[in-house]
Amino acid sequence: VEPVDPVSHPTHQPELVNALDEQSKGETKEGVNDPLTQGDLESHRILVKGFKKAFPALNLVSEEHEEESIEGVTAPSFNHPDIIKLANGESSVSAKDITVWVDPLDATKEYTERLTQYVTVMACIAVKGVPVAGVIRKPFDDQTYWAWVGHGTSGNLASLHGSQEQEDLRVIVSLSHQGEVKDVAAKAFAPRQVTVTPAGGAGYKTIEVIKGSQDVYVHTTLIKKWDICSGDAILRALGGKQTDLRGDEINYSHELDPRNEHGLIATMHDHEKYRIALQATSKS
Fold it and tell me: In 3D, which of 125, 88, 214, 101 has the Cα closest to residue 162?
């Protein structure tokens, strides 16, 4: 499927960030304001309603909710040359086994603060709860990263294999709870020097690990599955790994709770070594 690119819509342009009819959905568990903008809703309409028009029986879960008719909505194109090439000979999958997760605008708070480097648009396909394809679009950088497990990836991912182990360990964490993770990481990975980088957006942080700019992405509190499914799929396709902090793979079936309450660790290398160190520290 060739996705409709919501970056072309005027509400995704940086100069309009402060004119987006911002509302609040409340506060996160960390007490941080969780905003909703017109950009979130426009992206939701393009992606979610486009999917629904093309596949009415699709099980689709989006961060945003808007009950309106799909009349007049443009369905996505099916003519992307890379996908056509990869899909040749692919067997069909029952619609009941498929869940599509959509985050119309990840890092909304940063979006309203003009920290647009953190902003992504994400979509993920899971089959029987297992993520098999993911797209992370960075609209303000005009970069799209996608992967289909066992089939292929976008060209900008082909040469990315994460970082190799070095003396200093680089850990990327959420802006909302950087202090807590810094203390835990320093204790868990001692005597190695640990550099903790706070950043917005789960999609952004996962791409930084894949690019090798960071070694480990750690999230210690609740996080929603639409934030992490796309990154999980891309990591799997490239040989990386994402689990909760207990070491369990995350089930992305639409029938389950969209909340992942057991934290997150994402790596390209040495996943269990880092996870076990974190788990041991949290129990001590």
Answer: 214
Residue 190: both structure tokens together: 């001692």
Distance CA 126, CA 93 (A): 11
Q: Is the pLDDT of residue 256 over 70?
A: yes
Predicted TM-score (pTM) of the model is 0.86
Assign 19 a pLDDT band (cuts: 50, 70, 90). Answer: very low
Structure-derived torsion over alpha carbons of residues 249, 253, 256, 262, reported in degrees to the nearest 10: 20
Residue 232's contacts (CB-CB under 8 Å, 6 or more residues apart) are 124, 131, 134, 242, 250, 252, 266
Spatial separation of the C-alpha atoms in residues 25 and 191, rounded to whole Å: 41
pLDDT of residue 284: 62
